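hey so i finaly got around to running the thing on Tellurite resistance protein from Paraburkholderia phenazinium. pasting the sequence first so u can double check i didnt mess up the copy paste, my clipboard has been acting weird all day
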Amino acid sequence: MSTVSVSPQVRHFSVPASSFGIVLGMAGLSNCWRFAHVVWGVDARIGEALFTLTAVVWLVLLVGYVTKWMRDHDDAMTEFEHPIHCCFIGLVPVSTVLVGAWVATWSDSAGSVLVILGAAGQLGFSTYRSGALLRGGRRHEDTTAVMYLPTVAGNFVSSIALSSIGYADAAKLFFGAGLFSWLALESVITNRLYTSEPLAHAIRPTLGIQLAPPAVASIAYLSISHNSIDMVFLGLFGYAVLQLLLLSRLLHWFVETGFSPSYWAFSFGATALVLASMHAASVHAHPAVDVLALPLFVLLNVAILALFVATLRLLLLGKLFMK
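ok and heres what it spat out for the 3d tokens, dont ask me to read them lol
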């Protein structure tokens, strides 16, 4: 009687595109510490050290992601063709833009190259991916907040970075692209959340992305308007605060899923909201914003530290990015 031996399935390391959300959150925190130096006189080396760590994480993830396309092309294509996960691919060039903006503070040429490549990359991907959606045929349950990533997050971040390296007119163009893409998607996504089945446990944390558009838009507006703390900025900032309150209301609903790296979806919007308040405080004393800057900054650091420690724990246990 012959027996058939079955080899155990070998698990392998695979970097998902969503992992670049870690870079966005860390970059946002790093920028907050850089503004803490301007607003409260905090040692500037803290922000630079955090951004150095962010750049290292970005490079490691980028190498891992490129390697996935080379060694496990089928897995990469499955992600690329997935109706939800595909949108996270836009985070790859967006994270490049953020790192490039920081590099530009040390080297104009190197930083500008990264920013321009990242901005062009996110525009190319968002055109391909979001353009395909115009054909229709999408299932209602596949409409989630991740749809903001290609056209909204990418264009707003590009606007901020391009403004920082001196491309003012281009920054305004990207701001417009991000703003109207956000307004077009907002009602579609909100309607799905209000009227359809609840989000599945696995993608529930992605709702944290809902905070990002108004928060990042407020920073982008400051960048292109020469730091105008006016009705437009306060309106964007106010809507971001409302989104924070709405997400806080659902905190118990989120934690039911247990921790996973997808919780980094909250980080970029949260850091952007805090950065907007600190940025505003650094250029103009306005009680509606200044009063929030310090407590939000403290809470943000606690939240990001918790995310970082929980993610590091998964890495040490061999459970991070394993398939």
